[in-house]
Design a protein that fits this description.
The chain is mostly beta strands. It is built from no helices and eleven strands. Helices cover 0% and strands 54% of the residues.
């Protein structure tokens, strides 16, 4: 059974950092394409970063480029989203997603950036 569980969300001050984790079960992280999405209050869900299968290709949207870093630890079956220089507009529920044949989603973790 495939399961993705995000963790690490919380309240952080502007300019701070936070690292989200996404623990995967039932998937091969070495070959899966991995992405992080977010959905801010009142807005549509948007993709923010992705890594292709085997890590040959990575991409981030302009608003997080240089601040957010996606990585994966295949030994721990975990994907990370390191977020630096956080801004209030980064406040959202963050979701990880993986593609291996089908597309799988976690339930999300809330990140609030506020002073």
């Amino acid at each position: 059974q495939v399961q993705l569980v995000e963790s690490g969300g919380g309240l952080v001050q502007p300019g701070g950092s936070l690292t989200l984790s996404c623990k995967a079960s039932g998937l091969n992280l070495q070959t899966s394409s991995i992405g992080w999405f977010r959905q801010a209050p009142g807005k549509e869900r948007e993709g923010i970063t992705c890594i292709s299968g085997r890590g040959a290709f990575t991409s981030s949207i302009e608003t997080v480029k240089g601040r957010f870093i996606t990585s994966r630890d295949t030994a721990k079956s975990t994907v990370y989203l390191q977020m630096n220089s956080l801004k209030p507009e980064d406040t959202a529920v963050y979701y990880c997603t993986m593609v291996q044949g089908a597309t799988y989603w976690g339930k999300g973790t809330l990140v609030t950036v506020s002073s």
